[in-house]
Each structure stands twice: as C-alpha cells, then as structure tokens.
Amino acid sequence: MRGMKDLNWIRGAALVRWCLIGVVGLITIEELRSSVWLLAMGAAVISNILFVASESIEFRFKFIASARNSVAYLDALAIMATLLVPSVASHNLWLLSIPLIIADSLVHHNLRRIFSLSGWTAAVCLAFNMLANHTWVSLAMSLGAVVVAGAFAAGLSKAQRREVNLSRRDQRLHAVQRVGLAFAESQDLRATMELTIKAAVVETGASCGYIMLGADESRGPLVTEVAYSPHGEFDFPQELDFGFGLSGYVAKMGQPVSVTDKNEDQSGFDGITEGVTAAISVPLLTRGSSTPGRSAEEQVLGVMTLLSTHKGDSFTADDMELLRTFAALVAVAVSNARSDERQHSTFVRTMQSLATALEARDEYTRGHSQRVCEVSLLIAERLGFGPEALEELRVGTVLHDIGKIGVPDAILNKRGRLTDDEFEIMKTHPVIGYEICKPLALSEGVLMIIRNHHEKLDGSGYPDGLKGGELPLSLRIVCVADAFDAMSSRRPYRGVMDRHTVMSEFSRGAGIQFDPVVVESLRDLLNSARMQELYAHYWTEEEAEAA
Q1: Residue 376: which of 461, 443, 446 has the closest Cα?
Q2: Domain co-membership, 440 together with 383
Q3: Lower CB count within 10 Å: N or C terminus of the chain?
Q4: Cα-based torsion angle of the residue sequence 341, 342, 348, 351 in order, rounded to the nearest 10 degrees
Q5: Looking at the structure, do residues 321 and 377 belong to the same domain, yes or no?
Q6: In a domain, 512, yes or no
Q7: For residue range 15-63, what is the model confidence (pLDDT) as tens digits?
Q8: How would DSSP label each residue in 298-362?
C-alpha cells in the first residue's frame, strides 16, 4: 500500500537527524550564551520531534502531514544559513547537508524528492555563499559536495527501493504459499478464509478486511463470512444486496475495483462511514459447469474487500494482484466445498430413497430409518453434539438398515417370531450393510453405526460383541433410538407397546444393554412436541387398543 513506510528506516533517519543536531551543538557550544543559538537549537529539536511523530505515528491533522515534507528543506536552509554567521562559518557546518540529503533519501525512496532537495540545498548554498562574499573556490566545493551527495543519495535510494520491493515480493510469495498450503491441507473452510483475509490485510497494510459470500447459485444477498482488523473489532457490513455498496457493485459486475476517497467526504464504503480513505474489492470467480456447444460461464461466489483509514494511502497495482491471487484461492476452495456439499447431499438423498424403497418391502418397518434418525438427532442435540457429529449421526441412521436388502422377504415379512436359523440370517444385515457402504468413502463413525447398531453395553450384542467403552456415544444413541422405535411400532408378532412398558424395558436394561445417560435423555424427550408428532399414529393406536 502506498503511504506505508518502513519504520526501521524512519527511525534510522531520525537518529541521523539527532546526531546532526548533537554535532552542531558540540561544534558551536561556545555560542551557548547567544539567544540566536538557543533559538536555532530549539527549532532543530522541535523539527526532529515533528519529523519522528509525523512519520511513525498516524495523525489526522493536515498541517502535520504537510509539515513533515518540509522539514528537510527547512533543515537545509538552517544549515546553509550558518554561512552567514562569521563566528560559526569557519566550522564548515554546511557539510552537514550531505548526511541530511542521504538520510532523507533512505526515508522516502523518491528520486524526484531527492533531486528537489538537492537542488534546493544547492540553490540555498549558492545564495548564501554569494551573500557572505565567499571565494569561488569555496562556492564550487560547496556546490560540488551537494551535487555528489544528491547523486549518491539517488543511487542509494534506488538500490534500497529495489531491495525493499524484492523483500516485499518474497514476503508476499511466502504468504500466498502459506495460504495455498492451508487450503490444500485443511478441510475447515472458515478457518482458512480467516487466515487468508488476515494475510491480505497484513501484506497490504490495510486497516481491515472481510470476505462476503452469496447464496449458492443465486443472486441473494452477500453475507460476511469472515472479517479481520489488526486493531480489534470494527463495524463491518453483515449483509449487502447485489449492486449495493462497493462490494455489492463488484459482485454484480464481476470486476475488481480500487477506490481512493481523495475528497475525504466520508460518504462510506459498504455503509461504513468511519474515516475510510481507500478501498479495494475483488470478486471471487469460478467457472460454472459447461454444456455441449456452450462454454462454462464465470460465476461470482462473493467478494473480498479491504479498507484503509490511513490518511493519504491508496492501494497499488501490486496490492490488487495479491488480492486477486488470494481471491482465486478462496473461490476454488468455496466452489469445491459447495460441490462436495451438493454431492454429499445427493448421495444421502439417494441412500435415503434406497432405504425407503427397501423398507417398503416390509409394511411393519416402513418409515423406521427416518424415525430412528429423528429420535437420534433429538437425543444428540440434547447432549450437545456439534454440527459435524449430528451430520454423521444423520447419515448413519438413515443407512443403518440398508443391509436388509440381503435378507429374504419371507423372513422380513414373516408373521410371528423368527426361528433360530431365521434370526441368524436376520443378524447378518449389519455386516451386509457395512460391506455395501464401505467402498462409498463414508466416515468411520457412519460405518460403525451401520455395522454395530445392535451392540449392547454388556457385550451381548452383535456382530462384534462390543462392550463398555468400545461403544462411542453416537453408537449408544442409535442403539437406544433403534430399540425405542422397534418397541413403539407394530411388528408382525405383536402390537404396539405402550410408552410405560417401553420405558420400563429401558429402565431394566439401563447400564446393561443401554447407556443410562442416553435413556434419561430419551425419557426427558418423550413428551416433546416432535416426539408426539413422530409417534402420534402409533400412540393413538396404542390408546385405542387399550380402551
């Protein structure tokens, strides 16, 4: 960002100025009683304090920002003015203009300013030498020294600017590599976007920044996903419509925009009116799917926006290029995440349809998987499960009985209790379901629910005889929910069990077959509106039969 200075060089230049003031003071110490000397030294000290303050601390007062650019010129004028004072002219203090020019060049890295300061110093030197009636030899030496100092300062500044640019590019390259590696290794999109916006703010010197995303495949409002400011919290926009504000305009047009508020009317960017002086916004672009005879079109997923409140700053072309690189990485990650989410959703819906079709073979278990899913999620939410754990539980319960596809209809629809041989065949369905789903790249938690939803705490379950701590909480929840639905719905060999009988069975099995904490959570949910809705048909039927 233009206007952001290297504070190490600024402090170094300030140190040089303090040294110059000290040298002048020591050389002219015999003039201590002179009011002119005291006034001159006081002015020099004040000028350097002003220099340090204006360069290293952000001020909003225009007179300070303007004065800092004039300090070096005033210093040169003061140094050359010593040629007019006979008592100190013999000390050749004009030579101090040489380190002054060099020090200033290390701060500004501006060739035009170096030539301007050198020319001003030479002109003042010429004028004061002529006023003091110095010899032409003395004049030539003074002018020659100033010209050589200007040339040296220009070369030094150019080399330093090249070094700073190379260092900055190397630093930005490392930042891009770091962000790219984070996207490649992490599956946490939000955390990686936070890393990206932080890197963008730090590398460009912006005051704050945020990433806004639109709804998938729609032109709904842009919503801020992540925001960052090195100064803490700031008032960033929560939501913007397409076409509204800077970010909305960029999202609508699909083109990056950089704006500098030169008039400082504080009209605001994206509704922010707190002294924003510059802003840059880049769209997050990705290619949509192509169709035969038609190339893929670019889609705008969102925007990345940076703001600056530093007076006189503006974003450079290098800042724009860096932000576009970051935006491209974010766009790819968001597009891939949304694609994975759509594929996952399609897969789950397909499996759910398959499970529903499978349950249609057995009129007594129709809707069983969906009810087990609902009950499991209610219990898990009550026990504080997070979004990822809930999703894993949802997928696992929807697919938990998929293995019944390998069980003959005669066994599934048999009226009456199964024989020992038939029950052994029925007990194979968890392993069949596990083998069906194992190649589908499902998580270990989902596969465990499919394979082990008939396990018991005491190890008497099947197929693996897991017990105690070998059963994770999610599996314990499914075991309770599965048994609850089986007892709460009609079966070929019995009618619906009343709720009191069901919970009595769970009370007897708590700590032996079932996790007691999960059983208590189920008991607390029994009279909830959602449970009443899920089992209204069966519990109404149960009450009718009891009557």
Answers
A1: 446
A2: yes
A3: C
A4: -150
A5: no
A6: yes
A7: 766 777 777 777 766 665 666 666 666 766 776 676 666 554 444 444 4
A8: EEEEEEEEEEE-STT-B--HHHHHHHHHHHHHHHHHHHHHHHHHHHHHHHHHHHHHHHHHHHTT-
Residues 522 and 409 grouped into a single domain: yes
Residue type, 469: G
Give the Cα separation of 398 and 351 in Å (integer): 8
Question: Which amino acid type is present at position 506?
Answer: F
Q: Which of 70, 65, 94 is nearest to 80 (CA)?
A: 94
- Domain span holding position 267: 188-338
Q: How far apart are the first and last CA of the chain?
A: 81
> The domain that contains 441 carries what CATH number?
1.10.3210.10
Based on the domain organization, do 530 and 387 belong to the same domain? yes
**CB neighbours of residue 448 within 10 Å:** 22
Q: Which residues of 159-197 are buried (b: 16+ CB within 10 A; e: fewer)?
A: eeeeeeeeeeeeebeebbeebbebbeeeeebeebbbbbb
Are the CB atoms for 228 and 197 separated by under 8 Å?
yes
The answer to whether the beta carbons of residues 97 and 82 sit under 8 Å apart is no
Per DSSP, which regions of 186-340 are E strands?
208-213, 222-228, 239-240, 257-260, 278-287, 298-308
SS3 (DSSP) at 290: coil
Q: What is the pLDDT of residues 108-127, one digit of tens each?
A: 777 888 888 888 888 887 88
Q: Would the pTM of this model clear 0.85, i.e. be above it? A: no
Structure tokens at 532: 């009443």
Look at the chain and report how many structural domains it folds into.
Answer: 3
